[in-house]
Write a structure and sequence with these properties.
Blueprint: H1 5-29, E1 46-50, E2 56-60, H2 61-75, E3 93-94
Antiparallel strand pairs: 1-2, 1-3
This protein binds zinc ion.
Length: 98
C-alpha cells in the first residue's frame, strides 16, 4: 500500500492545531471552582445545579447554559416522566467558593 506522506503530514498538523486550541481554552478559561470545562472565564459567579438524588454540580454560567442545552436536546427523545428539569440560572443557589 502506498502511503501519501503529504496527506498524512497535513492530518498531523490539523490534529496538532486542534489540540493546541483545546489546551489554550482549557488552560486560560477554566474557572477553578466550576465542575465542568466549558467555562468562558476564569472567574465569575458559580451556582449549584441539582443533578438528581442528593448530588449537585457546581457550575459557572457558561457551563450551566451548556448543560441546559444538553438537557433540552435529550428531553426531546425522553418520555415526559423521564425528562430532565430545566431550571433557571436565577433560581439556583449561589455557591460560595471561599
Ligand atoms: Zn464552567
Amino acid at each position: 500500500m502506498k502511503i501519501n506522506k503529504n496527506k498524512q503530514q497535513k492530518l498531523y498538523n490539523l490534529l496538532d492545531s486542534a489540540i493546541d486550541i483545546h489546551s489554550y481554552t482549557a488552560g486560560k478559561m477554566k474557572n477553578p471552582n466550576c465542575d465542568n470545562n466549558k467555562c468562558l472565564s476564569k472567574t465569575g459567579e458559580i451556582r449549584v445545579l441539582p443533578t438528581g438524588g442528593s448530588s449537585n454540580a457546581i457550575l459557572c454560567q457558561a457551563c450551566f447554559a451548556y448543560e441546559i442545552q444538553y438537557r433540552r436536546e435529550r428531553n426531546q427523545s425522553l418520555e415526559t416522566r423521564n425528562r430532565f428539569k430545566i431550571p433557571q440560572w436565577n433560581n439556583l443557589e449561589i455557591y460560595d467558593a471561599k
